[in-house]
Amino acid sequence: MSNPRLVSRLAAASIAVSIAVMGIKFVAWELSGSVALYSDALESIVNVIAALIAWFAIRMSQKPADDTHQFGHHKAEYFSAVFEGVLIVLAALLIFREAWMALGREHALADPGPGMMVNAVAASINAVWAFILIKVGRREKSPALTADGRHIYADVITSVGVLFGLLVTLATGWIILDALMAFIVGANVLWEGWRVISSSVNGLMDVSVDSKESALIEKIILANATGAMEAHDIRTRMAGPVTFIEFHLVVEGSMSVSRSHQICDHIEAELRKAIPNARTIIHVEPDHKLKDEGIAIS
C-alpha cells in the first residue's frame, strides 16, 4: 500500500535540503568568481521554490474527496510539476542571460580550487537526495516528488559538467570556456524543464497506465472473473498515486444480480491487492452484449 505520510515528510525535508544546497553553491561561487558556478547557484533558487510548491501540492493531493472534488484532489501534484517545469525554464533563461553578459566582459577566476571542492560537496548531497526522491516518488506514484527528484538529478549533471568545464578552463587558461560552460548548463536545465512539463501534461490529460501494468490488469481480470463470459472496453487513467480502471463484464442474462455482484467484488479486491490505490468501476452486461474484440473468460 502507498504511504502518503512518507511522501509528505520527504517533500518537507526536500525544502530543507534545497536551502542547504543553495547556500553551499553560493559559497562556491563567492570563492571562485566563476560564471558557471554562479549559473549553477541560480538554478538552486528554483530548486527551493519547486520544493515548496511540491510540498504544498502533495498536501493538497492527499485531502479526501469532497462535494466539489468527488474524485479526490490527486491531480494537484500534476499542476505542481507543470509549474516546476516553468520555473526550470525561467532559471535556464537567467543562466543564458548571465552567460551572455559574461562573454562581453573580462572576468577572472578568484580562487577556483576551494569553490570547486565546495560545489562538489553540494553535488554529492543532491545526488543522494535525488536518488531517494525518484525511488520513493516512483514507488508511491507521486508526480510532484518524482519531478522534484528528476530536477535535482539534472542539477547534479549540471554541477558535474560545470566542474569539468572549470578543470578544462584551468588547464587551458581560456576564461571564455567558463561562460560557454554556463550556456551548456542553461541548455541542460532548459531540456529538463521541457521533460518535466511534458510528462506532467500527460497526467493532466488522463494518460493510461503503461503496457506492463495494462497487461497485469487484464491478467487479474481473466484470473478472477470465473462465472463471467467476457470483459471488454478496458480503460485506465492515472491521477497521481491513484489508478482508475473501468471495463464492461458480460455475464449470462439469467445470472442473478447478487452472483454478478460477487464476481465484481472479487475482481476489485484482487486489483486492489496488485495495484495500490486502484479505483475500479465494472459495468455488468447480459450475454447479448458480447463483442468480437472482447477478452473471453474461460
UniProtKB/TrEMBL annotation:
Gene3D superfamilies: Cation efflux protein transmembrane domain, Cation efflux protein, cytoplasmic domain. It is a multi-pass membrane protein. It is found in: Cell membrane. Keywords: Cell membrane, Membrane, Transmembrane, Transmembrane helix, Transport. Pfam families: Cation_efflux, ZT_dimer. Residues 13-205 form the Cation efflux protein transmembrane domain. GO terms for biological process: intracellular zinc ion homeostasis. Residues 211-286 form the Cation efflux protein cytoplasmic domain. One of its GO terms (cellular component) is plasma membrane. NCBIfam families: CDF. Belongs to the cation diffusion facilitator (CDF) transporter (TC 2.A.4) family. This is Protein p34. It comes from Flavimaribacter sediminis.
